[in-house]
Design a protein that fits this description.
two-stranded parallel sheet; 2 domains; alpha/beta; 5 strands; globular
Amino acid sequence: MSPTVYTHFLRKFEAHHDVTIFFNLRHITFPHVGEEERYSINRIGVPNTYRIAARQGYMDNVFTEDFGTVLLEQLRSFLEAEIGRVPEAPALVARAKKELECLENAYQKQVVYIFGKEQLHPKKEANWGRRILLGIFIWMRENTRSKPAEFGVQVDRLVEVGFVKKV
């Protein structure tokens, strides 16, 4: 299952990348998360597509100058561990080696961050109280720090895919 914004992106542009990583940041109620417990990596049904979930304590800062390098290292470790875990299964080892090579090549070519930008609009049939409350929420949401700013993503590596949602 892929995020809505990615499905929307594929429908509009009919494009698929060499390697796709879906990143999910999970804020937890502890001050710190150990490095060995921070990242969880899973494969998704599409080849060379992965989901990386990072757990972040409220005192942690997982974002660095080039967050793409951190994700590359985590995914590289995942694939190398997979190669070492099943040496008696040559088909799986060959697949993991091929994916590792594809990952390295894709990283050398270009790293692009695709962010979802959801615009909320109150439905016309909503009562005036709901419209006012939603208007205040939408204004606050639009005028707070954005995801690209939080992640420290360079503008030349950023693609924001937006869509309108009636609430």
